[in-house]
Write a structure and sequence with these properties.
By secondary structure, the protein is an all-alpha fold. The chain has one domain (6-32, 43-203). It is built from eight helices and three strands. It has helices spanning 10-32, 49-83, 89-92, 94-103, 107-110, 114-135, 139-155, 177-203, and strands spanning 44-45, 156-157, 168-169. The chain has a three-stranded mixed sheet. It is globular. The chain starts with 9 loop residues before the first helix and ends with a helix. 28% of the residues are buried.
């Protein structure tokens, strides 16, 4: 099956992508006016705003390719291959999500936070699998994944090897258990709200 075939009907996928993206942008605007405003600590400037804006089109393209590639692999190829052979969602939703979580398990970089971060990734994978199954295309999952990664890589990032294109960084590392775990609780809640918003967008 060609890679584009894994996306689903392309015109429908594009419509669903933009529908979900619009909903998430509205949600993001609302969340901007709600606390916490600094992710639990004062943000540090990273790229100069002019440089960040100049690079933004290329940065967005790179993040879209990265998020789309992961969705093609996990919710496209693996999920669809398993769904063709097994009727139980415990197989075609959970197994690709477990593999997705395993790919985000980084004990050398995250230390004690490695397991919570992997758990977050696994739950994110299950929610994206649900969106894909409901929509019949990868459009919604790519939109949610894109917004998540733009937020984490281009707007406010951890000061690690993936912070090169972000506007701000937080003053704690991925391995800082106390600081990061406090924020992960908020991140879990935000993930579920984004998933619900995407489902709502699909029902309109």
């Amino acid at each position: 099956r060609p890679p584009l075939g894994l996306i689903g009907p392309l015109p429908l996928a594009v419509v669903q992508f933009w529908r979900v993206l619009r909903m998430l942008l509205i949600l993001g605007a609302v969340l901007l006016v709600l606390p916490p405003y600094d992710m639990g600590a004062a943000l540090s400037p990273n790229l100069p705003p002019a440089t960040w804006a100049l690079l933004l089109p290329l940065s967005l393209g790179a993040v879209l390719i990265q998020a789309g590639t992961e969705e093609l692999l996990f919710r496209g190829y693996i999920q669809q291959a398993l769904a063709a052979r097994f009727s139980s969602p415990l197989v075609w939703m959970v197994l690709p999500s477990a593999l997705f979580a395993l790919g985000h398990y980084l004990p050398a970089e995250a230390g004690q936070n490695a397991l919570p971060i992997a758990l977050w990734s696994g739950i994110f994978g299950v929610l994206m699998a649900d969106l894909t199954a409901r929509a019949g295309t990868l459009g919604p999952a790519i939109a949610v994944h894109l917004v998540n990664n733009v937020s984490a890589l281009l707007i406010v990032s951890l000061p690690d090897t993936l912070s090169g294109l972000s506007l701000f960084t937080v003053p704690y590392s991925m391995s800082d258990a106390e600081a990061l775990r406090g924020w992960l609780a908020i991140d879990f809640a935000t993930m579920f709200v984004c998933w619900l918003a995407a489902r709502l967008a699909l029902r309109r």
